[in-house]
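Continuing the series of single-chain predictions for the mutant panel. This is the parent chain; the variants come on the following pages.
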Amino acid sequence: MNQAIGWAAMGTGFTFLMTMLGAAVVFIFSKNMGMNVQRAFLGFAAGVMMAASVWSLLIPAIDETENIGGIPWVPAAGGFVLGGIFLYLLDFLMPHLHLGEKKPEGMQSSFRRTTLLVLAVTLHNIPEGMAVGLAFAMAAQHPDDPALYAAAFALALGIGIQNFPEGAAISLPLRQEGMGRLKAFVIGSLSGAVELMFGVGITLIAVQITPYMPWFLSFAAGAMIYVVVEELIPEANEGEHSNLGTIGVMTGFLIMMILDVALG
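Parent structure:
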């Protein structure tokens, strides 16, 4: 159990670090990302999450179910649906504001605009942290299979790469809202802390209920796909030059697929 938690903390700690490095861009630039760059990065994040959902979560969930003699598609489908419902409820209940939008989503609140912007990215980071934590938890449950550790590292690497622009996408708009550079950096960094929290938290649960690991893996996949379809792809394809968002999706998917297959 301690080993699983340690690996999960390390993996999600890396993704958190990448968010911090991205947020640190505010010390170099004071302007927001151009819309074309933002579309490409959003598309890239969507592609990474889509590929990770398939190769790092759903396929391992199906394989693990077969290994324990279960019906392969049951936990894969059931967990996937539950993950989508979970994110739907968070999206419906949590007040948040997406970049470029004027009207917040979720329940009405008195939160400031900057807080709502951070909460929007936090929604994206929850399933990412869960996915990385679960990948390392499953690897720890099968210490005789080094491929699982390699796959978990590949997932953390892919999520970390797409977290860099996410960190910048938070700190730079906060700076544009009039916030000081240091405060914008701190808040932008903390938006990624939720990955560490949920990654370690879900691992604590998963290692106690090993037979249900396929359900947890599929749950994380469903949550990630919900974010991709509901938030990332629509935002990546808004306005003119939406093809940049599409290219970003394909690039992110390709890189994550290569990382997972080559390392896993």
